[in-house]
Specification:
Layout lengths: L1 E4 L10 H15 L4 E4 L9 H9 L2 E8 L5 E9 L2 E5 H5 L19 H10 L4 E6 L9 H11 L15 E6 L11 H5 L7 H16 L12 H11 L3 E4 H8 L2 H6 L3 E9 L8 H11 L4 E8 L3 H6 L4 E4 H5 L2 H6 L1 H18 L2
Parallel strand pairs: 1-2, 1-9, 5-6, 6-7, 7-8, 9-10, 10-11
Antiparallel strand pairs: 3-4, 4-5
Helix pairs in contact: 1-15, 4-5
């Protein structure tokens, strides 16, 4: 049996590379004669550069940038010919903050400007910005302000001319708008530690940013990365699917076309998984090639009918295998190995 293994990260526990390795180890323990092709994936959030680099190589440029709270952090630009790849979470990711001390109001996207300038100064004519996993909800305004500072641009210069001659592709993991009940503040700010009062404050901030821009705040993807999508659109950016960008780089459709089974996965399988995330993207490719899809997830909040409608044939969770979320998270690699092993046994035994 030939199996394509294309998981996302299991947020807070395993990177996509680690998840793929755990699945491989568990599966081959039961079926050592099978061929597993590992394709760690990303939807534009954390792990985006690792996934792209594994597929196409390139040169890593290491840059010191202002982190989400202004302290210096190290981030990378991946240069592949005249195309540069940026992972916004490296500069303003939620993982850069102390989990016990979130700062959803103070967190800033400013450091992304340094990455854009680095890409431009190294001859990139196309910059692909992976958007996801950010700590900020600021519509990319601090990024734009710092970009003006770094480039010495006159305040009268239109945003779209700040990086003249560079095509910006905004690789988002979601299609949410900037404002409203599906917007950046309402949907994502609580995940970044915002209380109801802070959500209202952040919504007001986003409305102010929208009023100062010609970009329609309802544009799909404008709310990605706490509104970073909107800020990048102001620079002339065009939205692309983060997972499709990664799938193309990995040549995932051709790999899946010759597979007997596709395995994907993530930490929490829920309704957001079906809005541009890795699992739905991989399932869509597999469905087009008429290949079965198994999802191995930390937990699942989807019903069988929802999963089936998304092209998912089976779902197996670490929580069910371990008995509790705490137990699953205490040993995620081993638990994922065990779930992969039991899935391999079922597929080979027909049980």
């Amino acid at each position: 049996m030939r199996v394509v293994v294309a998981p996302d990260k299991f947020a807070g526990t395993l990177s996509a590379v680690e998840a793929a390795a755990a699945i491989q180890a568990g599966w081959l323990d039961i079926a050592p004669e099978d061929t597993l092709e590992l394709c760690p994936m990303s939807d534009g959030g954390p792990g985006f550069l690792d996934a792209i680099e594994a597929a196409v190589g390139g040169e890593r440029l290491v840059v010191d940038v202002p982190g989400p709270l202004g302290d210096d952090v190290v981030a990378d630009v991946l240069l592949v010919g005249t195309t540069a790849y940026i992972e916004s979470a490296m500069a303003c990711g939620l993982h850069l903050l102390n989990a016990d001390e979130p700062d959803p109001v103070g967190a800033s996207s400013a450091g992304i400007a340094d990455l854009l300038v680095t890409a431009h100064s190294h001859g990139a004519t196309t910059v692909v910005v992976g958007v996801g996993g950010t700590a900020c909800t600021d519509a990319g305004v601090p990024m734009l302000e710092r970009l003006r500072e770094l480039t010495g641009a006159d305040d009268a210069l239109a945003d779209q001319h700040l990086l003249s001659g560079v095509e910006i592709l905004v690789a988002t993991d979601v299609d949410n708008p900037l404002l409203g009940h599906d917007g950046a503040a309402a949907v994502f700010a609580p995940q970044k530690g915002a209380n109801p009062g802070q959500v209202r404050l952040l919504e007001d901030r986003l409305r102010t940013a929208a009023a100062a821009s010609s970009i329609d705040p309802h544009t799909p993807g404008a709310g990605a990365g706490g509104g970073l999508g909107h800020g990048l659109f102001r620079l002339g950016g065009v939205r692309v699917s983060g997972v499709d960008t990664c799938a193309t780089a990995l040549e995932l459709p051709s790999r899946i076309a010759t597979a007997d089974l596709v395995i994907t996965g993530e930490g929490s399988l829920d309704h957001q998984s079906l809005r541009g995330k890795v699992v739905s993207g991989v399932a869509r490719v597999a469905q087009a090639k008429a290949r079965p899809v198994v999802v191995l997830a930390g937990r699942s909040l989807l019903g069988r009918q929802q999963a089936s409608a998304a092209g998912i044939d089976e779902v197996h969770t670490l929580v069910d295998a371990a008995g509790s979320q705490e137990a699953a998270m205490s040993a995620p690699f081993d638990t994922l190995m065990a779930v992969a092993a039991s899935t391999a046994r079922a597929w080979h035994d027909g049980t």
